[in-house]
Amino acid sequence: MGAQELDLLRVAVTVAREASSLVESSRSSAITDVDTKSSETDVVTAADKAAERLVRDRLAELRPGEPVLGEEEGESSAGAPAGGVCWVVDPIDGTVNYLYGYPWYAVSVAAQVDGVSVAGAVVEPASGRVWTAARGEGAWLDDRPLRVSGADRLDLSLVSTGFAYRPERRRRQAAAIAGLLGRVRDIRRAGAASLDLCAVAAGWVDAYAEHGLSRWDWAAGALVAEEAGAIVRVPGDGSDGLGAEAIIASAPGVADEFHTALREVGFGVV
């Protein structure tokens, strides 16, 4: 651990920053060229496609031969061999926010080895903030080291979440979160999973949970949260009763209570 992760992090930051500049400079034209994916509310802009293409091209130059998994173009090859690096890219996390000009969206680039994130960068085009982490090396917002909050009571914790695009699933998710609302200080829904995870890392929220995300939504942000001291649960087999697709991050002092509350409100079955 150490040198390889930091080398991968430097590449992640470089390409994410370049993509972020493209995303921000092209917004006025990109939002006039909008398509949809899983539903009419699940949008993709020209900037999503252009930013992912830029990241893929730059990774091919800087890390030739390594596969890339991206939201817009899928996986570039059969995948990385055991012990090899695979890059996981979300060219714009929070595309609906981007479309509306709500400044909570980001470019997310992570390097994974055997499905585990080892380096990641989350860059905010609107503000220029850069969130970074390398496994075993800590997490940072620009030049400031990150640490999760010291929350130790769920009823005094600020929690964030997100919802699916399909109406039928959104209704089930909303019902579960409604059950959680009376158990916490308050709930936030900002619309970009990578940044929600970074917010846990910064102590801006005490916990976060969402269901049904793809790997590119959380690959970099989950590492930032974990390296800042959060207890992080990434999608897995669901044997803990929280569903195979759940991503959860929380301050250590409320992790057990938060997981219990999520199970009790039916979060794992949405």
TrEMBL record:
Gene3D superfamilies: 3.40.190.80, Fructose-1,6-Bisphosphatase, subunit A, domain 1 (3.30.540.10). The keyword Cytoplasm does not apply. Pathway: Amino-acid biosynthesis; L-histidine biosynthesis; L-histidine from 5-phospho-alpha-D-ribose 1-diphosphate: step 8/9. Keywords: Hydrolase, Magnesium, Metal-binding. Mg(2+) 1 binds at residues 71, 92, 217. It is an enzyme of class 3 (hydrolase). One of its GO terms (biological process) is signal transduction. The keyword Iron does not apply. Its cofactor is Mg(2+). Its EC number is 3.1.3.25. It catalyses: L-histidinol phosphate + H2O = L-histidinol + phosphate; a myo-inositol phosphate + H2O = myo-inositol + phosphate. Mg(2+) 2 binds at residues 90, 93. One of its GO terms (molecular function) is histidinol-phosphatase activity. It comes from the Bacteria. Belongs to the inositol monophosphatase superfamily. Catalyzes the dephosphorylation of histidinol-phosphate to histidinol, the direct precursor of histidine. This is Inositol-1-monophosphatase. It comes from Herbihabitans rhizosphaerae. The lineage of its organism: Bacteria, Bacillati, Actinomycetota, Actinomycetes, Pseudonocardiales.
